[in-house]
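Re: weekly structure request thread

Next one in the queue (646 aa):
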Amino acid sequence: MKALSLLFLIVCAIEGSANAQTLFSYGPYKVDKQEFLWAFHKNNAPATVKGWEASKRSYLQLYINYKLKVQAARDAGMDKTGDYTRDVHSFQTQVTDQTMKNLEGMGALSLEALKRGQTDIEISQIFVGFPTLADTAGALKRIEEAREQLQKGIPFETVATAYGTNPLLKSRGGYTGFITVFSLPYAAENLVYALPTGAYSAIYRSRSGYHIFKKLGQRPNPGAMLAAQILVTFAPKATDAEKLLVRERAYKIFDSLKNGAPFDSLVRKFSDDKMTYYNNGLLPEFTTGDFDPAFESAAFALPKDGSISEPVATSFGYHIIKRIGLQAPLNDSIDSRRWSTWQQKVYYSDRMDVGREKFAESILPVLKYHSYHTDTAWLSRITDTLLTGHSGEAYIKTVPKVPLFSLGETSRLKTYATDDWLRYLLYRRAGELRNRTTCFASLLKAFIHTSALEYYAANLDSYNLQYHYLVKEFAEGTLLFGIMQQEVWNKANGDSTALLHWFEQHRDRFVLPPSVDAVTFSYPDSAQGSGLFEQMKKNPYKWRIWMTDHINIIADSAHFELSALSLDSAYTHAGMITTPALQTDNNWHFYFVAQIYPPAAARNFEEAKGLVLGDYQTTLEQKWVSSLRKKYPVTIYQSSSPQNSH
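Done, posted below.
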């Protein structure tokens, strides 16, 4: 009782004491309170304060045992094996990548994109292109004049036609069509999604020119379309008469389709789309804003898979579209496969540049960024010489290595000099400077930010406690698995005589848990199972008959423990059908319970073998841990006064 009270006082004081850094020691090894608390909070979530404190008391002893076993693995040299080193390095690489993505804001940006992706925005725009990348002044003057006309109340369509420089947009009065998330550069997307209907934006500069956007309306996003096409193209500079002949040809093909001709064979015979005709006309999956508005409008209007559109005119020619499939827009993160694909799309989009820049700027003080205030005029001159002289590495070797800035301190100090800067430009950003699409100052800032992010990632273990403990947990977990296999699991599995003897000595312990004869049904789409579920409610014992109508649903009839199906014995009865639910394998499942069996004493060793093995392993483990506590005496610290724990 006294020992229990002491332990209670210790765990209550763990979080409050700033001075008691060491929580416990085992032999010469020490564990600090911060590490224990990280593991405790990660693995425990009791609902009440009382439950929280009780969990701390029990978890402390479990954690001590865990550390003893890991040390036994180190003593056995398991942390020196090639498999261990490779596994830890692989995990470290994965966690580094994911941690940096999260710190750079991928999670928040993914959720923002997900929300925007539910809605398409219909827009028009005034676009004034740059005659050359070096000549932007004239384009700026023209777009400013266009904005002045809008401010005077001149209709947007009129101004777009008068001032726009893109022939197709001019012919439409600036009409662009519907766009959705990822259709535009992130900065332009922010402008458009912030506009009220009928309003126009501030001037936006892209790589190719200036834009003013107007929001015409919005609609729910229709999803992602998979379709095939037969394309009959216009010749370059085709006359109206020639375009009419193309139209007539397209309608003859369409008539053949209506009369039963196979779509695939007509693709190979008539389609002018050299990218798709060899693949039965199949296009890459597309969504709003990917193709011409007329094409998209016709494709998304097709009512069902297999439907074929009439010929649709675009600037390319006439398209006959066949709907192959339509996937609803992603609206949450439950589907882990689609959510992962969505996050990758976010990660490789320009919106991540915003998150990276913000995070990089925030960590400069943490990394002890120090500028050596190098002469930027000189730096600009040697930069121009590098990029205009085409001598590359040969020139870099002639430039004095002048320090530009440093990151870190003491043993981790890293200085970045002119050669680092020039190689960064030569191998990673040369195209932008040659084309003068990014100013010198912006590129220098980008170099500092890139260097900071790479330095932070390489030293995550020192700067990010969450990362440090995750990697340490994996490494120790790997060691724990190896030593448990050696000291407990293999010993128990390999000694059938001892297992049989254990069963005979403790026969009354081994009671088989409640179980059922049941049928599990699984399917990837909730709509697929709705028909079967309704039939099962009429008479579940006819499930084999009902299944003949549902070849895409998997049924498995077997004997299960109730716990394997996550069923509560108090509410389970023969004939019951569970409610369909989406499970961790991203499939929908429901169960039919045909027969239920109550707990029963095991009749023989074979019947109870699994229970016997688990019980015997627990006993071996307890004896082993007891020997480890003798080898590594454990001391739990309360403030500065150690107390022995045996």
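Confidence is low (pLDDT under 50) at residues 1-20, 640-646. Residues 224-327 form a domain with the Chitinase A; domain 3 fold (CATH 3.10.50.40).
Next request, please.
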